[in-house]
Structure formats: structure tokens, C-alpha cells
Amino acid sequence: MTRTAIATDQAPAAIGPYSQGIRVGDLVFTAGQIPLDPATMQVVAGGITEQATRVFENLKAILDGAGSHLDCVVKATVYLKDMGDFAAMNAVYEQYLGRGGKEPPARTTVEVSRLPKDVLVEVDVIAQVLNDQTPMASWFV
User: Fold this and answer.
1) Contact 136, 69 (CB under 8 A)
2) Do residues 33 and 58 lie in contact, with contact meaning Cβ atoms separated by under 8 Å?
3) Nearest to 66, CA basis, from 8, 111, 137
4) How many angstroms separate the CA atoms of 85 and 90, rounded?
5) How many CB atoms lie within 10 A of CB 94?
6) Which of 5, 34, 83, 113 could disulfide-link 19, Cβ–Cβ 3.0 to 4.6 Å?
7) Distance of CA 38 to the CA centre of its chain
8) Contact between residue 28 and residue 3 where contact means Cβ atoms under 8 Å apart
């Protein structure tokens, strides 16, 4: 299968030897996203709510660049610095991936001892790529 690197200036540039995402067939795998502002490459100010919001905006941009969408996410992995932030992170997660009663993606959430740049949250996802003949409205029936 062909592997295609995803790169968009709407999400933070990779800060190491990796791609923002890789498309293989009809799937896209994102790199873990931390709450970096893509314009400044600085960690956003605020707590878990602000950081999680930036993370999901970064993921949204990468998926858009790959021909996918947050509605197409099938698996998410969430890394939290403190599991005490779970409820606040989950509230933001639901806004982006809750899908309003339709099947949400599978998810793993773990507490880790440290994340890059000492952020509070990192998330990576796997999503299906939209088919040009499939209207978004019928993606989840």
C-alpha cells in the first residue's frame, strides 16, 4: 500500500523526525498532538480545557488535510498528565468526538508521568478517509 505523509500549516509542524499524519489506503493515522498553537509553536495558555481544545483543533486540521474529518475517527488514544483532569478533558472530547448519540470512536485513556513540553494532554487518532462519492451526511447512519 502507498503511504502518504500529511502536512498542513493549520496544525503545528512536527518537532521531531515524524509526520503530522500518514495516510495508508483509506485510513489516516495522526501523530500525537499536544496543545501547540500552529502559528507560534508555543503551548497555549490555560488549563486542561484550553489545552484539550487546542489539541482537537490540531487533530481536526490534520484530518482535513488528509481528506478526513473528526466524524470519521474510529480510534482515539488520550494521554493525560493527571487522571484528575479526566472529566474536564472528557467534556472537550465529547464536543469534538461525541457524535450526538451516534457511535463514538473506540478510546484508550492513560495517565502518564510526563508529556512533551510538560503539557497536560496529548491525543492521537485513527480515522477513515472520506470517499469522494460518499456524502458526509450519510457517513454515519
Assistant:
1) yes
2) yes
3) 8
4) 8
5) 12
6) 5
7) 14
8) no
